[in-house]
Amino acid sequence: MKIRTAAFATLCAVLLLLGAIAVAQMPLQFSADMVMTPGGKHGGEPMTGKYYFGGNKIRMEMNAAGQQVISIIDVDRNVMDQLMPQQKMYMEMDMNKMPMGKQRMPDVKQYDASNPCAADKDVTCNKLGSEMVNGRMCDKWEFTPKAGTQGVARTVWIDKSSHIPIKTLMADGTLIEFRNLKEGPQAASLFQIPAGYQKMDMSNMMRGMRPPSGDEN
């Protein structure tokens, strides 16, 4: 249980990061392989998985701590469901109440090709040139936080054709990449909880995670 809980916490942080930076800004539907290499004090082995973007719904399939975890985000409802295929169970979480920042998912918007930070008032953008990344010709942009704001510093390689961020490098060295990107409508079934899955009682789970009282041995 401790290993599984740690894996879930890690996936929650990844999803919040992706939602805030990259994935919730394009209406185009697509699927891709995803690679995330943690940086900074959280550095470690790369995490790989499959990513599906269905407009207002997102699905990620990843392996963490030896457990397969499937996460489905409903952007409109601001809800994330995490599925555990081995146990045929799932957890439903309100993104507003998650402990990693209480950050709402942004509205679904498309990057402005000439000024990708136009919708983010906390950063300024500087174009650094164009490069081929994972088989896609991209414009390379540097995002710099404005003084006194909570903007996030990062470098983003934005696909010239789809305006999807193919590669994102955070200030702490965290790297997020999309590979083998395939544009096109995604099946609605990808974003639904399969039949036979039971919903976990989150209140009981949280009680089980509380530290023991002082009078216990």
Q: Which descriptor suits the 3D outline?
A: globular
Q: Quick check: average pLDDT?
A: 78
Q: Give the neighbour order of strands across the main sheet.
A: 7-8-9-10-11-1-2-3-4-5-6-12
* Terminal residue distance: 21 Å
Number of strands: 12
Order of helices and strands: HEEEEEEEEEEEEH
Coarse structural class: mainly beta
Largest sheet composition:
12 strands, mixed
By oligomeric state, this entry counts as single chain
Query: How many H/I helices?
Result: 2
> From the alpha-carbon coordinates, what is the Rg to the nearest angstrom?
18 Å
Poorly predicted segments: 2-10, 19-24, 100-108, 206-211
Q: Beta-strand percentage?
A: 35-45%
How helical, in percent, are the residues?
10-25%
What can you tell me about this protein's structure?
The protein is globular and about 50 Å long. Strands 7-8-9-10-11-1-2-3-4-5-6-12 form a twelve-stranded mixed sheet, covered by helices on one side. Residues about 1-10, about 20-25, about 100-110 and about 205-210 have low confidence and may be disordered. It has about 220 residues and is mainly β. The chain is built from two helices and twelve strands, in the order αββββββββββββα.
